[in-house]
Design a protein that fits this description.
With 217 residues, this protein is mainly beta. The chain is built from 3 helices and 15 strands. The chain is 8% helix and 42% strand. A hairpin with a 5-residue loop joins β10 and β11. The model has no long low-confidence stretch (mean pLDDT 91).
């Protein structure tokens, strides 16, 4: 939950900025799994030498969790964020990262195969944020068969290290979208605000591990 005594944090100039996430996976006490997400954003740009040197198995042993998932490097497709709840900074073999969220892990995820292959499946992330995508800049979305819109918040180099911001408009030609799903690109005339609801974000990933957040209207 948000701490009313803690001031919000606002970050801007984010689009195409590089970051990485270290996710500590542990049992949630209800027969499932949860992940504590630590992000490098706001602390460093996820330097390749430090990121590539991380050993997930060694980190899991150090932090006493069954699995550590290294999610990145990633690049923002939003312009600004206001964060209403955040945590402390941890050192991951010399790489600083700050707690940003808790994620509920979908069942049957195989962490030995990237993020596990759970593509186009919604996941709940416990965080309290508001994203802003500025007017006049491209916005990339997925629409599901129920008419819900998911806004691209970050693209990933986990699967395709050659993906760039300039190539995002062509994602619709690359993605193997399930029946009823659509990929769209548009340029809004006004700033687009994407806010969590009740301190929870609903997100999906495509098969390139790009992440989209539900835009609840």
């Amino acid at each position: 939950m948000s701490d009313p005594a803690k001031p919000s944090r606002h970050l801007s100039g984010m689009r195409d900025e590089r970051y990485g996430e270290v996710v500590l996976i542990s049992p949630d006490g209800n027969g499932g799994l949860k992940g504590a997400v630590y992000t490098t954003y706001g602390l460093n740009d996820c330097p390749p030498d430090k990121w590539n040197a991380l050993d997930a198995g060694a980190l899991a042993a150090r932090f006493g969790v069954p699995v550590v998932f290294l999610n990145g490097p990633r690049f923002w497709t939003i312009d600004e964020v206001t964060t209403y709840n955040w945590g402390g900074v941890e050192q991951f073999d010399g790489l600083e990262a700050r707690w940003a969220a808790d994620v509920r892990i979908p069942p049957d995820v195989d962490f030995s195969a990237g993020a596990g292959g759970k593509h186009y499946v919604t996941t709940t992330v416990d965080r309290d944020t508001e994203y802003v995508l500025k007017a006049g800049r491209p916005v990339y979305t997925l629409e599901d068969p129920d008419g819900r819109t998911f806004v691209l918040q970050a693209y990933s180099h986990t699967v395709d290290p050659g993906l760039t911001s300039d190539s995002l408009a062509a994602l619709g030609d690359r993605l193997r979208l399930p029946d009823g799903w659509r990929f769209r690109t548009r340029t809004p005339d006004e700033d687009l605000h994407v806010r969590t609801a009740d301190n929870k974000a609903t997100v999906v990933q495509d098969e390139l591990e790009n992440t989209y957040m539900l835009h609840a209207r």
